[in-house]
Structures are given as structure tokens and as C-alpha cells.
Amino acid sequence: MSYALLSAGFLVVAVLGGVLLARAAGASRPVLPAVAVAGAALLVLTAVFDTLMIASGLFTYEESLVSGVRVGLAPVEDFAYPLAAVVALPALWALLTRKRSVPAGALLRHAWVASRPVSWVNTAFPFAAAMLLTTREIDWLLIVGTLYYLVPYNLAMYGINDVFDYASDVQNPRKGGIEGALLPPAFHRPMLWLALATNLPFLIVLLAAGTPLSALAIAVSTFALVAYSAPGLRFKERPGLDSLTSSAHFVTPAIVALALAGARVDAGLLITLAAFFIWGIAAHAFGAVQDIVPDREAGIGSIATAFGAGRTVRLALALWLLAGVLMLFAPWPGPLAAVVAVPYLVNCAPYVRVSDAGSARTNRAWRRFIWLNYFSGFLVTLILILFWSISS
Length: 392
Known about the structure:
Layout: H1 3-25, H2 32-55, E1 70-71, E2 74-75, H3 80-97, H4 104-114, H5 121-135, H6 140-150, H7 152-164, H8 166-169, H9 188-209, H10 212-227, H11 241-261, H12 267-289, H13 292-297, H14 303-307, H15 309-327, H16 341-348, H17 363-391
Antiparallel strand pairs: 1-2
């Protein structure tokens, strides 16, 4: 990607961020003379100090990646960053200094709980692993994408869910801790703004850095993120589609990484992605069982309310088994990953005859499931290291 395109991405992010921040702050028209003076000073300082640093040999630019237009020795692209600061910072200042009905500290505390930190790795790991195994190097795109799928993506996924699930969450005794926030109504709108503000810059950069194929993957991933919980779509209330969409939340980060890295698609890769997707369907279906009673009381449909507790548990078992069997057909060392399905089968099996009335008992298995993911991640990491050494 050229330096000009990267700089343009920062400018677009700054303009959109400035507009959003100004609206959120309810800011009046900025003091243009002061902004203009500050902007002029930043541009002059950029020209002077970039020229001095380049002349002293502190850094240089690959000529094929810059336009060739320079001010002194500084490429014209360098001036995108002070311009971005001039555009965005006044609105940010207005937002930070205005009187708030919702304290920023309280919003951040709720955002921390809402984003489910214990589950961050479940979306960041697939992106990072797919990217690293394809490119075999750590570059800025790997770092930016991993950071995005680590925190902002999870804030959007779970934050949007907590806003629009509030009516059922207040009836659900497991909400308010590691398994999800109970977000007070006063924080609903600020949470949505925070999710948008933290996701949009990363999405713009990833789109600018990619190809039409990666843009399509990002679009599908983002749509699934929103459609699962947002009013008018609410895929989470459409039995069957809820589990498919939830699985997409965890598989699409890997697909985005593969598209960004230009991975070669072969049978082994398709088998691995299919097994991962089926694993995700099973995980969502089993997780929905514990919420059958509060979901029905709130009038919310799910795969578990439609199929019943026992049948949904048996479906999850069959899907986890299928995911493990599929990995037996992957190229070596892929078959080793079949063993990863075993702990989930053992954890789920005792509940094959659970009744709808007793479905809340599966919460104990669900809590174990959360920590099983870390153990599975450890095993998968060892297998990926083996794959790296073999393929190298």
C-alpha cells in the first residue's frame, strides 16, 4: 500500500471522527481563527523537523511508495497527520470538556465489562494466526488487525448486544459479570457511540489496505456483527440463523486475514474453516440452552427455545463431533486438531437429557466452556507451530 493511500485513510478517519465527536459533544461552530493558526504552525513545524530528521539520516522513505512531491525534504504525504490533528482535536476537546449526563469513567467501566475481556482472544487469535501463517512476517497490518479484533470488535459485538438485550438481561441472573454486562439505560446511547467511534477508524484502515475480496470479507463480518443484535434484523431471535451468525463472528476474522494476506485457497484450508465454523455453531447452540427460561419469558426466540434443551444439547454434541471428524481429513498436522473436540464433548455430554425447566443447570458447563477455550487455544497453537516448521 502506498504512503499516499495510508495518509488518505488517516485523513478520512479524522474527518469522520471529527464530525462524530462534534455531534456527540453538541459542539457549536469551532473558533476558526484559532484552529487555522494552530494548523499553520503544525504544518510549518512538520516541514522543518521532517526535513532536519531526513537530512540527518534518522529515517527515509521508499521512493516507489511516495508521490515524489516534497516540501523541503518532507514528502507531502507527511502533512496528512497534522491536518488530521487539526480536524479532529477541536471536536475531541469539546467532547471531553462538555458537561456530561454520563461520566466518561463510568462509561469506560461499563464498556470494559460489556466487551467480555475474557473472550477477546477468541476473535483476535483467528485473525493473527491466519495472517501470520500466510505472510510469515509481523507487519503493521497484522498489528492493526489484531488490535481491532482484540478490543473494538468485541466492544461492538457484545456492547450492541447488551444495549438491545436489556429487557431480557434484567430477568437473567447470570448477567452482570464475566458472562455479560447489565447495561443501565442511561449508558445505551453512549455505548453505541463508543462502539462506532472505536470501530470505524480500524475498518477504514483495513479497507484501504486491502483488496475487493478483503473488503467483501470485512463487509460480511461487520454486517454479521450488527445484524445479530440490531433492531429490524435481530438474527439472534431467528432460530438456526442465530447460531450461524454467532459462528460467523469468530470465523470471519480469520477469513478477513486470509483475504488481506492473499492466501492460496486449497482443500485443507476449506476443511479447516468448515470445521471451525461448525465448532462455532455448536458453541452458540449449547450456550443458548442456559437462557431458555429467561428468553421465553422475554419473548425471545433462539435455536434452544425452538428445539428444546435436550435436543439442542444433542445437536451441539453432534456438531462438535463432526468438527473433530472433519479435521481428520485435513493435511498433516491438521488431524491432530481432532482431539480438541474431545473436552467439549465431555463437558456437554452429561446434559443430553436436560429438561427445559432445568436448562439453567448447563450454566456450570458453560462456565467451564469459557476456560476450555484457553486450553484448546494452547493445543491449537502447538499444532500451528508444528505446521509452521513443517511448511517452512
